[in-house]
Amino acid sequence: MTLSGGLTRPGERDRPVIKFMEVDWTFCLVLALIAGTGGLMLFSIAGASWEPWADRHLLRFGVYFIIMIALAMCDLRWWFNAAYPIYVVGVLLLIAVDLVGDISLGAQRWLQVGPLRFQPSEVMKIGLVLALARFYHGLSADRARMSWWLLIPAAMIGVPFLLVAKQPDLGTAILLGATGGAIMVLAGLSWRIIAAMGALAAVAVPPFIMFGLHDYQRNRILTFMNPEKDPSGDGYHILQSKIALGSGGLLGKGFGLGSQSQLNFLPEKQTDFIFATLAEEFGFVGCFGVLFLYGAVIFMALRIASISHSHFGRLSAAGVTATFSLYVLINGAMVMGLAPVVGVPMPMLSYGGTVMLTVMVGFGLVQSVRVHRYTEVTSGKGSLV
Amino acid sequence: MSEPSIFFFEVNERQGVFHRRAFLLGGFTGLGLLALGGRLAQLQLVEAQRYQKLSAGNQFNYRLVPPPRGLILDRNGVSLASNRPNFRLMINKDKDLDAEAVLTDLAKLAPIDEARRNRVLKELARAPRKAPVVVMEDLSWEEFSRINIRAPELPNVTADMGEVRVYPFGGAFAHVIGYVAKVSDRDLKAAEGDTTQDQELLHHPGFRIGKQGVEKAFDKDLRGRAGATKTEVDAQGRVVRLDPAGDIPPTPGKEIRLTLDADIQNRALEVMGDESGAIVVMDIRTGDLLCMASAPSFDANRFVKGLSGAEYKALAEYERKPLLDKSLTGTFPPGSTFKPTVGLAALTAGIDPEIRINCPGSWYYGGRVWRCWEKGGHGPQNMHDAIKNSCDVYFYQTSLKVGPDAIANAARAMGFGQLFDIGIPGQKKGNVPDRAWKKRAFKKNPANQVWFPGETPSYGIGQGALTVNALQLAVMTARLANGKKALNPRLIKSVGGVEQPSGAAVPDLPFSQEHLEYVRGGMAAVANDVRGTAYRQSQLGLGDVQMAGKTGTAQVRSYDGVANRKGTGTIWRLKDHNLFVAFAPYDDPRYAVAVIIEHGGMGGATAGAPRAREVMRVALLKDPEIRARIERPAPLPEAAPEDIMEGAAPEDPVEGAAPPAPDVAPIPPTTTPQGGPQ
Fold first, then answer.
1. What pLDDT is stored for residue B302 in this prediction?
2. What are the Cα distances from residue A174, in Å, to A152, A168, A191, B594?
3. Residue of B1, B6, B14 to mutate, interface with A, max A Cβ within 10 Å
4. I need a labelling partner for A279 at 20 to 30 A (CA). Which of A157, B27, B322, B393 fits?
């Protein structure tokens, strides 16, 4: 092909047109399909109305899509240089939210800056991935496997984890911790340490659940263990979600005909439990299709990570993929009654701007990794920092 | 460029590790997605049916629709108990119901005072979950629509239209028909596990259960079968959509037609005034009860709404006992109204009625003086005179000749001492004493088991241990007047259109026609002989239609040594009972009437007879044949003798019944009887 032949010329890949062509458009199409399905479901549960969710959902996707493409154009070296500053700003914002943040639903998560109202924990999801990738970029395989150097990434994960958990937003904290852990594993963490950490978690989690959690958090977990105990109380969410899913059957009740969501039996139908709405109206076939799309996104993102020539590119793309995968798996398991109710939405499908923005910014980074896969990234100064 | 910090082999190694680990994590994610898919398959393919059922259970609700209660009509189709629409306000108990707040909101739309508020809160606390509790009944249309418009803001509130029982005549039929009331806990317990009863219907707040009389005895016939409306509801229980195709219509209860006549019954209650007692009217040919009134009465409609404690107390504690049905449950000594029966017993025993017994005003027997009510005495009396004058001395002596067992046999044949199957409970059969009864009654006292001769004279004038009820008196009179059949009374004409067996299909009386005719003659003299005990009070004023009757006075206490028997100035509960029985027309008996005025004073003529006359007039005027006979122009002096002959024709019952007089047919039977010629 003429184009690929031309790409071998020095400087050719820095041309904006070429960069634009290098964006993974199949990937973008799949994202649009998922977001479109989300819009469709939001249209349905509003009683066949664009108001109040579907129109805004699709509009947001359009705006965030442009942001994603713009970020994909940004040189990977820019990302590399911005990694630590973003992380530091993120930590500072988390500290700020602890001091002056708004209280909503009993947790301090929101920060108001001028007209903007946002959750600093979302900034941290990108910031942590970038910072860890940057750190491991300069760390040798030996040190990444097992050394005292690993205390640094552990601290980088620990600080935001504790700050977010203190808000309290256990779902996001776990997401941050798990993403960080995934990057450490990908970077080559010794299996011995992985096994030791796993064992430590197995020992530490049960007492933590009993004594380290707020009542509502503990109740959610206990309810999950035995949802039929109080079907109208704490078990209501899980039970109604399962009814919505199961009653969908193979082909579903039909578009706009899901009684569980239309008649409000399903709680949080437009956000956390939108997958149950989908399952009710489009059945097993519809769910399987959407899960397939999510699988495709994850597969393509991982592939982008693995073709990158820079370690920073690999780890940051894989880190974003890990965050995304965790969203899908945790929300899916929760909706299907396999995990306790935690406030984790289904990315791109659920209504809600913050998570969608985070995910799209993350995919902007992934696309940038793809566009700049041959770019040589160096710290320019030395092995560390 | 500076010296590379990481050497090539290391870069290679890091890349290799990443690829292996990325493959691994990707694999884990894929497994996770597969697990989700598997779970989906389990829920949506394997267990789909179970969840579809649960989902439908969430979505659809069947709301019970109580059936309209069956109507109760009189013999002409006049409604005695019907239903009227009722706008109700209810609160459904729900897990997140804030009753205080809801009631505060409702108070802005409907008048809910502090007492009602507290009662509703108490009932809500007791009610089972999801059960509706009635806040108010009989809302005005304005209140009803005001609340219905705001229904979306009041999720647990329902305002609907139900039906409530209404008794158009208030008190006139209260004892016969009874009333309906809220289902009590005891009713619920009694019905528990009974598969013939709809338990859900019993728990419906709009449902009422029959508590007395016909409403209770025929409760299950009157109830009908509940229907249901299928509604689609949302999670808050609000109705989103009705699904008329899925509705099950309720089956109305059966219509019950009584033999009573609303006009006669109303007149009966009217003429009772403040007195306490009962009036029973019976059709002599069929046994149908045209009137069964008990006074004083109460408004049955008050019981439907629920009586306040004070109201109930006032009713229960009033000495004239309005809650008691005196036509069935009140038993009294029949007094002189028993004399025709004693006369029949004597005739059957072979005593010659023409033998005269002298009445000097008193008679000495068994060591004491037996007084006649006429202090001066009646002189020599045969049976005809004795009935006409109600001579006590004659019957003292005659009863001694006959003996208690023969009197008891005659009394039973006339219907005393027995219960009649008229469809409603609460009859007391009274007591017909004889030798066998004495043995039973005084089991523990052998000395008293023998029948003392001194008991018989009292028995002969209807006193002593003898007690009867008003219905039995009417039956006795009807049998006597009918002259042939041992007629049984009937109250329920038809249930759901099915005619109930008539009281006329019964065996003949064990008395000879001759004897019955003789006694009837005595009774005719009571009302029509100028010297009869109730002559003045028995004139119907209906042409040649005449009444025959018998007065009665039943002592409440002994008058030995106490002079004032007339009752003036005596307190009410110590006065004599006043009775009167009659039938008319004398020449062709159609209707029998029995009147008991509790503590009405001495002499059946004073209180009983005028009332019997008034009620009898209504009954006669409602009968088209009798009316035709009355309205026939009186024969002019110069009229042809055939006219007189024709007018006398109905005197022979056989001829009078078969060929109707030429001017009978054109008279419509719809003429209002109550306003008849006074």
1. 87
2. 19, 11, 21, 94
3. B14
4. B27
The interaxial angle of helices A236-248 and A274-307, nearest 10 deg, is 80
In tens, the pLDDT along B43-57 reads 999 888 888 888 888
pTM of the model: 0.66
Pick the range with the lowest mean pLDDT from A267-276, B57-66, B281-290, B349-358.
Answer: B57-66
Length of chain A: 385
Judged by CB atoms closer than 8 Å, whether chains meet at B58 and A288 is answered as no
Q: Is B13 in contact with A141 (Cβ distance < 8 A)?
A: yes
| B2–chain A nearest CA distance, Å | 7
pLDDT at residue B214 in the model: 93
- Closest Cα in chain B, distance from residue A101 (Å): 32
Q: How many CB atoms lie within 10 A of CB B600?
A: 26
Q: How far is B27 from chain A (nearest CA, A)?
A: 10
From the list A182, A247, A338, the residue facing B54 with the nearest CB is: A247
Judge whether A135 and A153 are in contact, CB under 8 Å. Answer: yes
Predicted pLDDT of residue B349? 92
- What is the end-to-end Cα distance of chain B in Å, rounded? 137
β-bridge mates for residue B86, sequence order: B162
For residue A141, give the nearest of B10, B19, B22 by CB distance: B10
Cis upstream peptide for B244 (omega within 30°): no
Angle at B669 between CA B665 and CA B670, to 5 degrees: 145
Tokens 């189709």 identify what position? B77
Residue A1: is it exposed, middle or buried by C-beta count within 10 angstroms (0-12/13-18/19+)?
A: exposed
Closest alpha carbon within chain B to A319: B22
Tokens of A283: 């059945």
For residue B290, which of B673, B676, B677, B678 has the smallest C-alpha distance? B673
Q: What Cα–Cα distance (Å) separates residue A152 from each residue in A188, A350, A383? A: 15, 35, 14
A308 contacts in B (CB within 8 Å)?
A: none
Which residues on chain A are in Cβ contact (under 8 Å) with B2?
Answer: 380-382
Q: Which two tokens stand for residue A326?
A: 């965790």
B442 φ/ψ angles, rounded to the nearest 5 degrees: -115, 45
Q: Is the dihedral of CA B386, B392, B396, B397 positive or negative?
A: negative
Q: What is the mean pLDDT of residues B297-322?
A: 86
Q: What ipTM did this prediction achieve? A: 0.90
Count CB-CB contacts under 10 A for residue B137.
17
Taking CB atoms and an 8 Å limit, are B36 and A299 in contact across chains? no
The residue type of A109 is R
Residue B123 near residue B195 (C-beta atoms within 8 A): no
Do the strands B79-92 and B157-166 form a parallel or antiparallel pair, or are they unpaired? antiparallel
Q: According to the model, what pLDDT value does residue A383 have?
A: 41
**Residue B560 — pLDDT band, cuts 50, 70, 90?**
low
- Is residue A89 within 8 Å of A123, Cβ to Cβ? yes
Specify the 3-state DSSP secondary structure of B355: coil
The reply to whether residue B232 touches residue A329, judged by beta carbons under 8 angstroms, is: no
User: Is the omega angle on the peptide bond into residue B501 within 30 degrees of 0, that is, cis?
Assistant: no
Q: Give residue-wise pLDDT tens across range B300-310.
A: 888 887 777 88
C-alpha to C-alpha distance for B552 and B455, rounded to whole angstroms: 19
Whole-number Å distance between alpha carbons of B330 and B599: 13
Chain B residue closest to A383 (CA)? B5
* Nearest C-alpha in A relative to B238: A263
The answer to whether B40 contacts A287, with C-beta atoms less than 8 Å apart, is yes
Judge whether A365 and A126 are in contact, CB under 8 Å.
yes
The residues near B198 (Cβ < 8 Å, ≥ 6 apart) are: B223, B225, B226
Tokens standing for residue B553: 């006075």
Q: What is the mean pLDDT of residues B407-416?
A: 93
Q: Alpha carbon of B560 to those of A303, B360, B368, B371, B557: distances in Å?
A: 126, 18, 11, 10, 9
